Amino acid sequence: MRCPYCGSLDTQVKDSRPTEDSAAIRRRRICPDCGGRFTTFERVQLRELTVLKRSGRRVPFDRDKLARSIQVALRKRPVDPERIERLVSGLVRRLESMGESEITSEMIGERVMESLKQLDDIAYVRFASVYRNFREAKDFEAVLGELGPRAGDPLVEDEDDEPLPSHRAGAAPAEE
Predict the structure, then answer these.
(1) Cβ contact 83:119 at 8 Å
(2) Rounded to two decimals, what is the model's pTM?
(3) Cα 96 to Cα 15: distance, rounded to the nearest angstrom
(4) Dihedral sign, Cα of residue 6, residue 12, residue 13, residue 14
(5) What are the Cα distances from residue 46, in Å, to 49, 99, 111, 127?
(6) 45 pLDDT exceeds 80?
Protein backbone atom coordinates (compact mmCIF):
# COMPACT_ATOMS: atom_id res chain seq x y z
CA MET A 1 0.00 0.00 0.00
CA ARG A 2 1.40 3.39 -1.01
CA CYS A 3 2.05 5.85 1.82
CA PRO A 4 -0.30 8.87 1.44
CA TYR A 5 2.37 11.17 2.93
CA CYS A 6 5.60 10.35 1.08
CA GLY A 7 4.47 7.92 -1.66
CA SER A 8 6.68 5.05 -0.48
CA LEU A 9 5.47 1.58 -1.52
CA ASP A 10 6.99 -0.12 1.52
CA THR A 11 4.36 0.29 4.29
CA GLN A 12 3.83 -2.13 7.17
CA VAL A 13 0.62 -3.37 8.78
CA LYS A 14 0.71 -2.80 12.55
CA ASP A 15 -2.83 -3.92 13.45
CA SER A 16 -5.72 -5.67 11.67
CA ARG A 17 -9.23 -6.21 12.94
CA PRO A 18 -12.72 -6.63 11.47
CA THR A 19 -15.15 -3.73 11.44
CA GLU A 20 -18.29 -3.81 13.62
CA ASP A 21 -20.40 -5.51 10.93
CA SER A 22 -17.51 -7.78 9.81
CA ALA A 23 -17.97 -6.51 6.25
CA ALA A 24 -14.42 -5.15 6.08
CA ILE A 25 -11.01 -5.41 7.70
CA ARG A 26 -9.51 -2.27 9.20
CA ARG A 27 -5.72 -2.11 8.98
CA ARG A 28 -3.47 0.38 10.79
CA ARG A 29 -0.32 0.96 8.77
CA ILE A 30 2.99 2.74 9.27
CA CYS A 31 5.51 3.95 6.72
CA PRO A 32 9.11 3.11 7.72
CA ASP A 33 10.45 5.89 5.46
CA CYS A 34 8.55 8.90 6.88
CA GLY A 35 6.94 7.42 10.02
CA GLY A 36 3.44 8.34 8.81
CA ARG A 37 0.52 6.33 10.20
CA PHE A 38 -2.73 5.74 8.35
CA THR A 39 -5.72 3.39 8.19
CA THR A 40 -6.92 1.31 5.26
CA PHE A 41 -10.04 -0.82 4.81
CA GLU A 42 -10.25 -4.05 2.87
CA ARG A 43 -13.71 -5.03 1.57
CA VAL A 44 -15.14 -7.79 -0.55
CA GLN A 45 -16.10 -6.63 -4.02
CA LEU A 46 -18.49 -8.97 -5.79
CA ARG A 47 -18.25 -7.28 -9.18
CA GLU A 48 -17.00 -4.13 -10.86
CA LEU A 49 -19.92 -1.74 -11.04
CA THR A 50 -20.30 1.00 -13.63
CA VAL A 51 -22.72 3.88 -13.12
CA LEU A 52 -24.72 5.12 -16.10
CA LYS A 53 -25.24 8.84 -15.49
CA ARG A 54 -28.25 10.83 -16.72
CA SER A 55 -25.99 12.47 -19.30
CA GLY A 56 -25.19 9.03 -20.76
CA ARG A 57 -21.63 8.98 -19.41
CA ARG A 58 -20.34 5.81 -17.78
CA VAL A 59 -18.18 6.13 -14.65
CA PRO A 60 -16.82 3.54 -12.22
CA PHE A 61 -18.92 3.12 -9.07
CA ASP A 62 -17.34 4.96 -6.12
CA ARG A 63 -18.33 3.67 -2.67
CA ASP A 64 -16.71 6.67 -1.00
CA LYS A 65 -18.79 9.12 -3.06
CA LEU A 66 -21.94 7.26 -1.99
CA ALA A 67 -20.83 7.36 1.66
CA ARG A 68 -20.06 11.10 1.46
CA SER A 69 -23.47 11.97 0.01
CA ILE A 70 -25.21 9.99 2.75
CA GLN A 71 -23.05 11.61 5.42
CA VAL A 72 -23.91 15.07 4.06
CA ALA A 73 -27.63 14.25 4.33
CA LEU A 74 -27.10 12.99 7.89
CA ARG A 75 -24.89 15.90 9.03
CA LYS A 76 -25.79 17.04 12.56
CA ARG A 77 -28.40 14.28 12.90
CA PRO A 78 -28.39 11.92 15.91
CA VAL A 79 -27.34 8.83 13.92
CA ASP A 80 -24.46 6.64 15.07
CA PRO A 81 -21.57 6.51 12.53
CA GLU A 82 -21.65 2.71 12.70
CA ARG A 83 -25.27 2.74 11.50
CA ILE A 84 -24.20 4.93 8.58
CA GLU A 85 -21.42 2.49 7.69
CA ARG A 86 -23.88 -0.45 7.88
CA LEU A 87 -26.32 1.45 5.65
CA VAL A 88 -23.61 2.13 3.05
CA SER A 89 -22.34 -1.47 3.17
CA GLY A 90 -25.88 -2.78 2.81
CA LEU A 91 -26.58 -0.53 -0.18
CA VAL A 92 -23.35 -1.57 -1.90
CA ARG A 93 -24.10 -5.26 -1.27
CA ARG A 94 -27.61 -4.84 -2.72
CA LEU A 95 -26.25 -3.10 -5.80
CA GLU A 96 -23.52 -5.70 -6.34
CA SER A 97 -25.88 -8.63 -5.86
CA MET A 98 -28.41 -7.35 -8.43
CA GLY A 99 -26.49 -9.23 -11.10
CA GLU A 100 -25.98 -6.18 -13.31
CA SER A 101 -22.54 -4.71 -13.88
CA GLU A 102 -24.05 -1.42 -15.08
CA ILE A 103 -26.49 0.46 -12.88
CA THR A 104 -28.18 3.81 -13.41
CA SER A 105 -27.60 6.77 -11.12
CA GLU A 106 -31.41 6.96 -10.72
CA MET A 107 -31.49 3.43 -9.32
CA ILE A 108 -28.76 4.29 -6.81
CA GLY A 109 -30.55 7.50 -5.79
CA GLU A 110 -33.88 5.73 -5.28
CA ARG A 111 -32.22 3.01 -3.15
CA VAL A 112 -30.48 5.65 -1.03
CA MET A 113 -33.76 7.49 -0.52
CA GLU A 114 -35.53 4.27 0.55
CA SER A 115 -32.81 3.59 3.10
CA LEU A 116 -32.73 7.16 4.43
CA LYS A 117 -36.53 7.23 4.70
CA GLN A 118 -36.32 4.32 7.15
CA LEU A 119 -33.35 5.77 9.03
CA ASP A 120 -34.03 9.51 9.42
CA ASP A 121 -36.81 11.70 7.96
CA ILE A 122 -34.73 14.89 7.91
CA ALA A 123 -31.86 13.20 6.06
CA TYR A 124 -34.39 11.74 3.62
CA VAL A 125 -35.80 15.20 2.83
CA ARG A 126 -32.30 16.70 2.53
CA PHE A 127 -31.15 13.99 0.12
CA ALA A 128 -34.39 14.14 -1.89
CA SER A 129 -34.10 17.93 -2.25
CA VAL A 130 -30.70 17.58 -3.93
CA TYR A 131 -31.39 14.34 -5.80
CA ARG A 132 -34.70 15.54 -7.23
CA ASN A 133 -33.38 19.09 -7.73
CA PHE A 134 -36.09 20.94 -5.77
CA ARG A 135 -36.81 24.44 -7.04
CA GLU A 136 -39.93 25.47 -5.12
CA ALA A 137 -41.52 24.99 -1.70
CA LYS A 138 -44.21 22.75 -3.20
CA ASP A 139 -41.46 20.24 -4.04
CA PHE A 140 -40.75 19.94 -0.31
CA GLU A 141 -44.47 19.61 0.42
CA ALA A 142 -44.72 16.64 -1.94
CA VAL A 143 -41.85 14.80 -0.25
CA LEU A 144 -43.18 15.59 3.21
CA GLY A 145 -46.52 14.16 2.09
CA GLU A 146 -44.74 10.90 1.22
CA LEU A 147 -43.63 10.56 4.82
CA GLY A 148 -47.21 10.45 6.11
CA PRO A 149 -48.24 10.43 9.76
CA ARG A 150 -45.98 8.68 12.25
CA ALA A 151 -46.78 6.99 15.55
CA GLY A 152 -46.86 9.66 18.22
CA ASP A 153 -47.71 12.51 15.86
CA PRO A 154 -50.71 14.59 16.98
CA LEU A 155 -53.83 13.58 15.14
CA VAL A 156 -55.33 16.02 12.72
CA GLU A 157 -58.83 14.60 12.99
CA ASP A 158 -60.65 12.59 15.65
CA GLU A 159 -62.52 9.31 15.18
CA ASP A 160 -65.66 11.06 13.87
CA ASP A 161 -63.59 12.87 11.21
CA GLU A 162 -64.30 16.21 12.87
CA PRO A 163 -61.40 18.64 12.96
CA LEU A 164 -59.76 18.91 16.35
CA PRO A 165 -59.24 22.33 17.93
CA SER A 166 -56.18 24.24 16.82
CA HIS A 167 -53.38 24.40 19.38
CA ARG A 168 -51.62 27.39 17.86
CA ALA A 169 -50.94 30.38 20.03
CA GLY A 170 -53.90 32.76 20.01
CA ALA A 171 -56.37 30.26 18.54
CA ALA A 172 -59.74 30.19 20.20
CA PRO A 173 -60.94 26.82 21.51
CA ALA A 174 -63.61 25.10 19.41
CA GLU A 175 -67.12 25.26 20.82
CA GLU A 176 -69.15 22.11 21.28
Answers:
(1) yes
(2) 0.57
(3) 29
(4) negative
(5) 9, 10, 18, 27
(6) no
